[in-house]
Each structure stands twice: as C-alpha cells, then as structure tokens.
Amino acid sequence: MNLSSNLDENIQFLRDNLPLEKSFDLMSRSLTLGQTKAFFLGVNGFCRTEILQQIFSDLQDPLYMLNDRVEDIADYLNAKIGYAQARLTDSWDDLFRNVLSGPAALLIDGFSQAILIDVRTYPARGISEPDLEKITKGAHDGFVETLLFNANLIRRRIRSPRLCFSMHGAGTESRTDIAIAYLEDRADKALLQKISETIDSLQISSLTMGAKSLEEMLLPKHWWNPLPSIQTTERPDVACSYLLEGYILILVDNSPLVLILPGTVFQFTQSPEDYYNSPSVGTYFRLVRLLCIPVSLLVMPLFLLFAAHYPDLSLKWELISEKTSPQRMLFYVLAVEFLLDLFKYSSSLSSGKFSGSMSLISGLIIGDIAVSLHWASSEVLFYAAVTMLASLSINGTEFADGLRLYRIIMILATGFFRLPGFLISLALILLSAVTTPTFGGFSYLWPLFPFNAEALGRLLFRSPTPKAQPPKVWGRGKIKKSKP
After folding, report:
1. For the segment 234-290, what is each residue's pLDDT rounded down to a tens digit?
2. What are the beta bridge partners of residue 41?
3. Which residue of 71, 126, 402, 444 has the fewest C-beta atoms within 10 A of its own C-beta?
4. With contact defined as beta carbons under 8 Å apart, do 338 and 332 qualify?
C-alpha cells in the first residue's frame, strides 16, 4: 500500500495503525517547512536527538529556506537535507519497517513519498570476549546484540571489496533484520541462493531466541539427531577465518551468535587457540580435543560394562577395588552423572565470583559423603571426572551436550542389556551421527565422507600460516534439493 499525497490522510493512517497517543516511546510532531505542512515520526531512544534537532532547525530557519514552499521532494531531499543516510519511500510497509527499527520519517504535504532519515542509535553493551570461547592470547573482542556493530567487526578484519552483507528480514511481528555475509568470489552461489530463498520464505511471527530460533527454522531436525548441524560463534576472528574459506555467515539482529554454513562435525574440533601457538603445539592440542570425543562418549559405558558384568576382569585389571552388583553399579553411575551435571549447570548460572569455589567445595564434600553413604564409589567418581574433563575440553558446548545424551543412552542400554546393549546402542549412535542433517544436504562427515585427503589433513593438523588458508574453496558436491 502506498502513501497518499494528502498529509492529513497520511497522518490519519498513522494514527489508525500505530498507537501514537498510547505508546510513550513513539515521537510524532507536526512541523511547518516555510509554508508547507509536514509531519515527523520516530521512536524515542532509537534516534540521535542532536542530529534531528540540527536538521529540523535548519529546515525551519527562514534564512535557510529561500523558497516558501516545497515544490519537488526529491530536489528538496538533495538540496536541504545534508545528512548522508536519507532516502525516499512511497510504501507504508517500508516506512513502518524502518521507523520501528530506528530511522525517522518526515512526511510532507502534497507528496506521496516520505523521507527516511537514518539517525538510529541502539542501546548496546561493550564489545568483550565471549565467556564460552575464551583464549589465552590473541584478540579479546566479541560480537554483540547490534547487527551493525557485528558487521563492522567483520569489515574491520576483511577490507575486501568483494565482502557483501545481504539484508533480509523474518517475523511478521518482530521484523528481525538478518544479514547474510559472504565473499562474492569464494561463496557457493547455489548455497547462497538457497539460504536467501529459505529466509525469505519463513512463516514465523518472531525470532524469539534470535539466531538460535533462526537455526531451528532453517534446519528442522528429528529428536534422534541431538548433535548440532550448524556451527555458531561469537568471535569475529573465527567468523572471518570461515568467510575466507568460502563459508557463509548469517548475522541476526539482537543476537551475538553468528551462524556458519555449511556445517560439519570437524568444525567442533577447531579452536582459535591453535593458531596462537606454534604449529606443532597447535596440532597436539587439536588431536587431544579430537581424542576427547570418544573419551567423553565411551569411558563411562565401558567402565559400567566391565565393572558390573565382568567383575573378575575388572579386578584383574584393577578397574575396581571390590565386586558390586550390576544394579548397584548402574545406580552409582547414574547418580554421579546427575551430580556432575548439577555441578556444571549450577556453576554456570551462579555469579562468577562464587562459581569456581562453589563447584570445587561441592564436589569434594558431596563426593566424599556419597562414597561414605554408599551412593557412589571412588572408582565411579574418578571415571566420571575424566569424562567431565573430556567434555569440557570439546570446543563446542552444544556438541558436548549432544555427546552427553548419547552417553546416557549407552549407559542405560549397557546396564540393562550387557554387551549386546552396548554394541547395539553404539551402532545406533553412529547411525544417528552419520544421518545428522546439514543445510544444503552436504555430508555431516565431510571431508571424511566424501573423502578428501588434503582437506582432512588441514582439519586434523594445524598448518603454518602461509599454508593455513586453502588456495581454493573446497568442493563438497552438489546441493541437494529439498522435498516439496
């Protein structure tokens, strides 16, 4: 629907569609530009007041207005409004979307167009290092909840004329801004088109949880696929490194998380810390993190299998100090799993001043009492602690949580069905991991399948800086078309 050339009709339309008198944060005012009537609309707190005051002071100055009337709105915009970010619009949808996201609107009598003046400013927190992706050396900045700031952090690192931020929107009520970032000479054009079409076709009222809600809308998954399909990051240096390798980023306003597409399982074994150490040290710790995946998944189920169902072997190999019934051993393992998760989440939600000491004291006291009351054994506490350390060493918290769900399934299957339960649950877990869906239909196990020896070597071993970036974008095959 387009604007009318009659100012009174436009004002009435605004009053019918916006709570101008009811909502305190909506600013509106009737103005006179020479002898021409005008109307201003903006959102209090989103507009830089000092700039608007200067613009309107000039427009209402008789010495500044040589002509009493506005004859041509385009010429008026070019000649009288010296602010850089200003444009015309004739669409009500465009006007509402812009005004409610920050820019101010100026409607002038006699014209079916409005002037949009982008003087927006947002309340924002300081740019600080994300808690879940801390490193000992290197940059300590991180993405924030303001989309423009995040784009600036990327542009500051990649000053290429081929870097592009394509704007989209989603949510009939929230109208959330979404930017797709890519390098034009490196990004997969078919994947880029599929991402744009998917975002534009989303039927949703709002992205309540920002980037996480968008992730679930882009790639719906089954309950038997708990592993993450899309990698997220809050670090600009990590995001830029993926951009240079041909990946595509999705930035969502009001969210510090940036989505990286396409996603593979090996992305969750990478850490920026590797590149702030020497290549040999970085390779060592990368392989350690890779080893933490099977350790986190298999240590507790294997311990339960041998300790509960093969106690003679366990005593011979000194895995346990005394025989225990299978039912009691299963109870020990499940109780310790619950307690460790309780420590983990309580410390993550408590104040940083107390979380470390509280977790240490709670672990010592509760662990000692649990052994004394025969609710657990010292062996179970030891293997559970090893499992938890391995889980915390995995770079992606979502990936570690998915492995934890797999581990509990294996513990239950092993406790009730012995060796067949262990083997069957392991096979089902591997099947679940292999069939984890990815956006665009790429293999979740690339470059292991389809096999690419050179790309796999770059992922497993930390290359020196001159060889760190591939000379070309790795091919992953054709994008699978989604079923109608």
Report:
1. 999 999 999 998 899 999 998 999 999 988 888 888 888 888 888 899 899 999 999
2. 28, 105
3. 126
4. no
Residue 410 near residue 426 (C-beta atoms within 8 A): yes
Angle of the 397-434 helix axis to the 378-393 helix axis, nearest 10: 90
Same domain, 55 and 170: no
Fill in the DSSP letter of residue 47: B
- pLDDT digits over 299-337, tens only? 999 999 999 888 888 888 888 878 888 888 888 889 888
Six-digit token pair at 96?
């509402």
| Cα(230)–Cα(113) distance, integer angstroms | 42
Tokens of 231: 């990698």
Q: Hey, what amino acid is at 128?
A: S
Which of helix, strand or coil describes residue 271?
A: coil
Q: Are 340 and 376 in contact (CB under 8 A)?
A: no
Q: How far apart are CA 197 and CA 417, in angstroms?
A: 48
- Closest alpha carbon to 326 in 303, 348, 295: 303
* Sign of the CA dihedral with 268 first, then 274, 279, and 285 last: negative
Helical residues (DSSP H) of 278-351, grouped into ranges: 279-309, 311-316, 326-349
Asked if residue 268 is part of any domain, the answer here is: no
Residue where a domain terminates, one of 407, 434, 461: 434
Amino acid at 356: G
Asked if residue 444 is part of any domain, the answer here is no
* Cα separation, 304 vs 410, whole angstroms: 10
Residue 117 has φ and ψ, to the nearest 5°, of: -115, 110
Q: Are residues 282 and 424 in the same domain?
A: yes
CA separation for the pair 140, 145 (Å, rounded): 17
Query: Is 89 within the bounds of a domain?
Result: yes
Q: Same domain for 76 and 141?
A: no
Q: Which residue has the tokens 């290092």?
A: 129
Query: Residue 85: how many CB atoms within 10 A of its CB?
Result: 10
pTM of the model: 0.85
**Number of structural domains, the chain?**
3
Q: End of a domain among 390, 418, 434?
A: 434
Distance CA 429, CA 409 (A): 9
Residue 28 CA to residue 41 CA, distance in Å, equals 4
Please report whether residue 363 resides in a domain: yes
CA angle (274 as vertex; 268, 275 as ends), nearest 5: 120
Q: How far, CA to CA in Å, does 198 sit from each of 103, 187, 215, 382, 482? A: 27, 17, 11, 48, 10
- Asked if residues 163 and 142 have their Cβ atoms less than 8 Å apart, the reply is no
Which ranges in 350-484 belong to alpha helices (H)?
Answer: 352-372, 378-393, 397-434, 453-460, 465-468
